Q: What sequence folds into this?
C-alpha cells in the first residue's frame, strides 16, 4: 500500500511541477511503478496458493 502511495506522489509531482519533469525523476518514478507491479504480482500468486477446496 505504501509503495502505491509513493508512486502516486511521484506521478502527481512529475505531472504538476515543472522542476520535477527530469529524466532522473522519471527513472525513480519508473522504479516505484515496478515496485507496485511486483508487489501486486507476488500478492496475487501467494493468495492463489492459499486457496484450498475441500470436498
A:
Amino acid at each position: 500500500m505504501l509503495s502505491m502511495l509513493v508512486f502516486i506522489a511521484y506521478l502527481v509531482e512529475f505531472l504538476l511541477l515543472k522542476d520535477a519533469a527530469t529524466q532522473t525523476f522519471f527513472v525513480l518514478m519508473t522504479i516505484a511503478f515496478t515496485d507496485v507491479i511486483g508487489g501486486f504480482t507476488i500478492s496475487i500468486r501467494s493468495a492463489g496458493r492459499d486457496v484450498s477446496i475441500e470436498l
